[in-house]
Structure formats: structure tokens, C-alpha cells
Amino acid sequence: MTDPIDLTGASWFKSSHSDNGGTCVEVAPDFPGVVPVRDSKDPEGPALLFPAAAFAAFVAGVKAGEFGTV
What we know:
Strand order of the largest sheet: 1-2-3
Order of helices and strands: EEEH
Helix content: 10-25%
Number of strands: 3
Largest sheet: 3 strands, antiparallel
Low-confidence stretches: none
Mean pLDDT: 87
Structural class: alpha+beta
Radius of gyration: 13 Å
Shape: globular
Strand content: 15-25%
């Protein structure tokens, strides 16, 4: 098991394309090898941690339209 990642000082941001009434996720980009993701409506709630390569592949798929209109 690995040590937990301290997200206390994380710099969170929403996509510049997030204009949907607050139903957004935020990411914190400054963690080598991992991308923390959280619900913008619950900033004190839990965060999911994704391997950076997997998150990059997901973003590339969204940009390529692999998931339809999201």
C-alpha cells in the first residue's frame, strides 16, 4: 500500500469549458504521476486519484468525441 497523497495545498481548477450551472469536476495538476479529481460542489469531500496517463487518455478521448456529447 502506498502513502496517502496530501491534497491540503492543492491548486484546483475547472475547465474553461465548464459553463453548465455548477455541475463540474475540478482537477489539481501539480502531482507527479497522478491527477486528483473532485466534485466542485463538494470541495471538502473526497477526491479520486487517477494515474496521469489514464487521465490524459480520457481527456484525449473526450476531445476526439469518443464519448459523444458530454
